[in-house]
Amino acid sequence: MSGFAPAGDPVIPDYGDVSQCVANNDLFCADWFAAQWPEVFQPALLEHILMTVLAIAIGFVISFLAAVLAYRKRWLTAPIGVTATILYTLPPLALFQLLVPLTGLTLLTVEIALVCFTLVILFRAVLSGLTGVPEDVKRSARGMGMDQGQILRRIELPLAIPSIISGLRIATVLTVSIATIAAFVVDSGLGSPILKAISSPFNTQFIGAGALAVLLAFALDALLTLLGKALTPWTKARS
After folding, report:
1. Predicted pLDDT at 10
2. Longest pairwise C-alpha distance within the chain
3. Is 67 helix (H, G, I), strand (E, B) or coil?
4. Please, is 162 exposed, middle or buried when counting C-beta atoms within 10 Å of its C-beta (0-12, 13-18, 19+)?
5. DSSP 3-state assignment of 125?
6. What would the pLDDT profile of 70-79 be if each residue is shown by its tens digit?
7. Three-state SS letters, 170-229
8. For the chain, how are helix, strand and coil distributed in percent, rounded to 5?
9. Which residues of the chain have pLDDT under 50?
10. 184: Cβ–Cβ under 8 A, 6 or more apart, which residues?
11. For residue 114, what are the CA distances in angstroms to 36, 44, 46?
């Protein structure tokens, strides 16, 4: 996407014949967006989805195991929580800079950073869901002869699903937004056309890529909401 004239020159992308909308640099030119979809916006969107899903999946596995461990060994809650909080409070660009000397300008650098930002949210969500299970329910399960593992799988985890889904929704939307900054490290995701559009006075590329990021966040949030309802049918029956 290097065919833009520098600021101050005629604002017409160098893509051959252009429409009047592009020539006038209107707010959004649907024809130009559609023409660039196969080569620019669709690959960027797919890369963004991959970065987000990979980070959430890895972050959830780590957070889930840490939360279950902290639930069993309560003294681990504070050190794990503090570590996750410290990683969360680091500015994204600062964390990228810290990682680049170790892992280079690679997707691995981006994924490590994105995973770090999900840990505190997902850890707290899982732990909160587990600790929120009523004690009398667990006593009843023990009275039925269930061991700790069975109680966790059959009682505690199902009842913790609403809290876990809430954490996943927050972490996913956050990851979608932070992943746009990853363009400073790798030429990938929706952040790439956004970053390139910042140096150009042409509106459509910036607005198109930004709108896709927003729509992606809404879409993933909606999918997780539907997943939560599907996994907790008893809440609908109760209401």
Report:
1. 35
2. 78
3. helix
4. middle
5. helix
6. 999 999 999 9
7. HHHHHHHHHHHHHHHCCCCCCHHHHHHHHCCCCHHHHHHHHHHHHHHHHHHHHHHHHHHH
8. 80, 0, 20
9. 1-12
10. 93, 96, 191, 195
11. 28, 17, 17
If DSSP codes are grouped into helix, strand and coil, which group holds residue 239? coil
Sign of torsion over alpha carbons 82, 84, 87, 92? negative
Q: Which domains does the chain have, with CATH numbers?
A: 37-230 (1.10.3720.10)
pLDDT at 17: 65
**What DSSP character marks residue 145?**
T
Tell me how long the chain is. Answer: 239
Q: How far apart are CA 184 and CA 82, in angstroms?
A: 28
The amino acid at residue 137 is V
Residue 233 CA to residue 108 CA, distance in Å, equals: 38
For the stretch 160-180, pLDDT in tens is 999 999 999 999 999 999 999
Cβ neighbours around 52 below 10 Å, total: 25
Tell me the HSE value of 159 on the side-chain side, using a 13 A CA sphere: 15
